[in-house]
Amino acid sequence: MLISKLHLHLPLRFHSAFSLSTLILFIPLYACGKKAEAFSQTASTCPTGYLLVAHDPDYTDQDFCVMKYEAKMQAGSPVSVPAGDPWVNVNLTEAEAACTSLGEGFALLSNAQWMTIAASLAQNPENWTGNVTGQGSLYKGHALQPPATACPADANDQLAFVENDCSAKSRDQISPERQSLRRTLALESQMIWDLAGNVWEWVSFDRGNQDKPGPYETTWHEYRDIAPTATFPITDFIPNQKAFWDAAWDNSHGIGVYSGGPNGEGGAMIRGGGWYFGQSTGLFSASIKYDRSLKNANLGFRCSYTL
């Protein structure tokens, strides 16, 4: 809990509009070691622009917070806001450093956290085009040109489509072939942006580059065609241990694809696909064919915060 973590001694008297569970704490910089900027937080909840995620015993052992949007750069720091282009052209080391620079508890989103979020999203019927889990496909986000660029998000979660340019549009403003390209996914009662599509995202994941799942090719494969190993079980990539998961699901259902590259090379993980990746973009798309030095204009990241 935030109060005990920071060892703050708060007066018991406060304005009647607040309860202890909703008291807004304006934490002095010297008390929490954050960067020199105002940082407000609700007791036991998330930083501004982050969403609360319930832990999943298959992947995570405690609740955490995740950026609602792909990280944007403001004054050299990563922030979670709708406006602006995603922070790209960062390698894995730089993405990790950007997140940890925010202070104690902040880190680059891990693959285990990604899987916690993605498994919850895939089970939610709101995230399927058929409005029933497994019917139609999972929404793929901005994964079709034009526009041939990553796009900002929007403060209005209903304006979750783009067409021709990056102007945010509602469902009734777009053509039928774009109906599966909603950029928001429902995480319980919250909406998270661009976990599939827009730009690829780094995740923290360190298993080395030996004993990788085959095929050992740089091309893309359906998950049913890969050969998991003891080092890289299939549950690192898709939650096929879950009761809701259907082994028949493939890229036509919007789950995405996998590329491992040659064994002994790469090993760093990027996820989600991007604006140029077309129908192969998906919530569970993953590549471990690159090493941590990869840096390009189609690769960003998002941060997490551990409560």
Task: Give an account of the 3D structure.
With 307 residues, this protein is α+β, with helices and mostly antiparallel strands. The protein has helices at 2-6, 29-32, 92-100, 111-123, and strands at 24-26, 40-42, 50-53, 64-67, 72-74, 77-79, 106-108, 161-163, 165-169, 184-187, 190-193, 200-203, 258-259, 268-271, 286-290, 299-300, 303-306. A hairpin with a 1-residue loop joins β8 and β9 (165-169). It is globular and about 45 Å long. The termini are close together.
Essential attributes:
single chain; 307 residues; alpha+beta; five-stranded mixed beta sheet; four-stranded antiparallel beta sheet; globular; disordered N terminus
Short description:
This protein has 307 residues and is α+β, with helices and mostly antiparallel strands. The protein has helices at 2-6, 29-32, 92-100, 111-123; strands spanning 24-26, 40-42, 50-53, 64-67, 72-74, 77-79, 106-108, 161-163, 165-169, 184-187, 190-193, 200-203, 258-259, 268-271, 286-290, 299-300, 303-306.
